[in-house]
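We modelled the chain as a single entity of 174 amino acids. Its sequence is:
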Amino acid sequence: MESQRKRRRQLMIRWMLYFLLLLCAAALQTMPGFLTIGSFKPYFILAVCLAVAFQEGEFYGALFGAVGGLLWDYTAGRTFGMLGIGILFLCFLVSVLVQLYLKPSSVNFFLLNLACGWLLLSTDFLFNDLMRGYAHAARRYAVVILPEIVVSSLLAPLILLLVRRIAARLSPEE
């Protein structure tokens, strides 16, 4: 009885810490002037969502990705649901790839985060900038969006390390 209560409490604390990490990532991502490198700003919400999906599995990772994507939609002022659906799909895909084909290493996480970041931000660019006919859209893609993807992917293994530490500390003993 006590061990079941302890497991439930550890699980609740673990998911509360994941959500707190997601909120911190959203705050860092949207804080003006903080962590700005040149004319671009790294994003963190995708890395947190992918790290949780990497650690927790496809169902919970996809749900967490949907929440993170909706939070990103809200904070970025984008069409509500577009990034939510995109990150939900990417988190599910990453989790399945890790369970079936890939070793759960930091290098694989970096490469997956790079690919997912490129796919997500390229589709976001397509629908929000290119299709609306903004001037110098291709220049913005090359000068701002691609460096954002690379720098954010370089910082992503640190987020994975933090998520793994949370999971290791708050996992119930079998």
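As a brief sanity check on the tokenised model: The chain has a mean pLDDT of 87. The first helix runs from residue 2 to 30.
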